Amino acid sequence: MSAATGPVPDLPGPTTEPRRADEGRHVTLHLVRHGAPLVDPAQAPSSWSLDPSKLDAVHALRDAGVLPPGARWVSSAEPKSRETAALLTDEPVGTDPDLREQARPAGWLDDYALRIHRSLVALEHPSAPGWETGESTRERVVTAALAHLDAAGADGHRDLVLVGHGTAWTLLVAALTGRPVDLYAWERLTLPDVCVVAGGELVRRWGAWRG
To answer: I need a surface site. Which of 58, 69, 132, 198 has the fewest CB within 10 A?
Structure first.
């Protein structure tokens, strides 16, 4: 499958109203997108590992000093996320399969970016055969993220780092902030990347860690 290129095409607006997740949690959430994977169209993306030739970008994120010390860390169970987390911290890292990316089968789609855009705005419809709907992805990821925020607060952590995926995190940010899904933010995501959400607001946008 190909990366997103060019401007976002005109698409219909969201078919469901954005919602704002509970603002009563006093834990700052750091969402990390994994590093660049070694793409194998013959395998489902959920099985991909990091590309060994592109680890410098992950090391650069660690060296940037933007990830909080002493945070609670949880990763998606997908290899590329677990491997990213292991390179970013010496803290223990939990795993949660519910933080996985939108499920997609093996195969190559030339219109991959358009399929993602559609799945982000027409949440109830699969954007391609075998794809998980955006609605299912959102509900699963939001429920898991809120549970981890509660657990982090109960443990006395002020920061929670979740390591995962671009589409899942795009849907999560919209839910936590009560704003429409930001297709342009998805377009600009890098591998890896990080944003910060606190008190129902996006307080550090994707890509800001690069200066």
So the answer is: 69
2, two tokens: 């190909």
In the numeric block, which tokens belong to residue 140? Answer: 């699963």
Phi, psi of 142 (to 5 degrees): -65, -45
In the predicted structure, residue 6 carries a pLDDT above the cut 50: no
The domain spans of the chain are 28-210
Rounded to whole angstroms, the maximal C-alpha distance in the chain is 46
Q: Does domain 28-210 correspond to CATH entry 3.40.50.1240?
A: yes
The alpha carbon of 208 is separated from its chain's Cα centroid by a whole number of angstroms, namely: 16
Rg (CA), the chain: 16
Per-residue pLDDT reduced to its tens digit, 126-156: 999 999 999 999 999 999 999 999 999 999 9
* Confidence (pTM): 0.90
Give the torsion sign (CA, 161, 163, 168, 169): positive
